[in-house]
Each structure stands twice: as C-alpha cells, then as structure tokens.
Predict the 3D structure of the following.
Amino acid sequence: QEQLVESGGGTVQPGGSLRLSCVASGFTFTSYSMGWFRQAPGKEREFVAGVGWSGGMRKIADSLKDRFSIARDNDKNTVSLQMNNLQREDTAVYYCAAGSHPYYVQERRIAFWGQGTQVTVSS
C-alpha cells in the first residue's frame, strides 16, 4: 500500500521557520519525483516545491523561491521542505505528493498524496 506521511507542521510566529518531512513507503521511491503542495481555507491547492527522482532537478514556486527549499534522501525514502521567514499567508495544510513523472512534479500527474500537515503562522 503506497503511503506518504508528513510531519513537522505546527504553529510558528511570523518570521519563524519550520521544516516539514515526508516518509514514503509501499512503492519504489526513486521512480517518482516528489513535491509539496498547500491549500489554505477557501483557496485552491497550489504548488509549493518539487524535486526529481535523483534530487538534481528542483523547483520552487516563484513567490516562494527566496524562503523555501526542498530536498530528498533516497536512502531514507524521505523528502523535506524547509520554510523560512514564514508569513501569515503561508498558513495552510501542506501535502506531500509523489509525481508520476520521474523528473518533475505536475499537479495533474500525482500518483500518491499524503494526508497533510497543518502549518499555522500567527502571532
């Protein structure tokens, strides 16, 4: 059974940092790109970051490039999202995803979704 389990969410003050982690199991991890999406209440789900199967192709949403980064560890079947200088508008449920295309993440080509982890930025 394919499974993605996120962790690391929580509440942080504006300007703070969080690191999200996602552990994959039940499938061949290196056959998939990996990514992160987020969805705020009343908003559409949006792409945050993605990384290809080898870790060499990384992309961050344009508006987040200066603050977020993504990495994967194929020895541990994990992918992480480092979030710095968090702002209130970053509040959302963050979802880990496995992309069907091995090189890059596309929302229309997601094979497996995690359950999500809540990130709340509040003073």
Observations:
- The mean pLDDT is 97.
- DSSP finds no helices and eleven strands in the chain.
- The CA atoms of residues 52 and 103 lie 4 Å apart.
